[in-house]
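step 3/5: co-fold with guanosine-5'-monophosphate
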Amino acid sequence: MSECIFCDIIHGKIPCAKVYETKNTLAFLDIAPVNKGHTLVIPKKHYPTLFDLPSELGKELLEVMQKVGEALRKTVQAEGINLGMNNFKPAGQLVFHAHFHIIPRYENDGLSLWPQKKYNNNDEMLALAQKLANNI
Ligand code: 5GP
Ligand code: ZN
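step 4/5: write tokens
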């Protein structure tokens, strides 16, 4: 076993329920689904988070996520799809091999994602947007 469970899956050292693969990506079912069909899309090479991924991989990853999402709509009659990615521990990342969650959703499936907060006022919001823009 290596340090990374997803590298072990890529190298066939531990099994997975494979859905699809391309030259640089693999899609397989999450072992503990939010809803059945919940699929993980990962790069075959080990990159810990979004910020380590080469942007050239983006097109291939996006195409795979679109294909998997469409297949979930047909296969498990998903009425909606959440695309998610956890980066770093405070955001819920448990496996430090970058991965995207493709989650089938249904009306009234009991999940309530994204509890939301408020800015104190519009000026605070605009100032933060400007600060962010200055850091890009
Ligand atoms: P994270 O919290 O890092 O975004 O998500 C990691 C995901 O990997 C979790 O949803 C978890 O259920 C899934 N997972 C962890 N170990 C395995 C495994 O051995 N096989 C599969 N198929 N999924 C796994
Ligand atoms: Zn890895």
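step 5/5: annotate
The mean pLDDT is 97.
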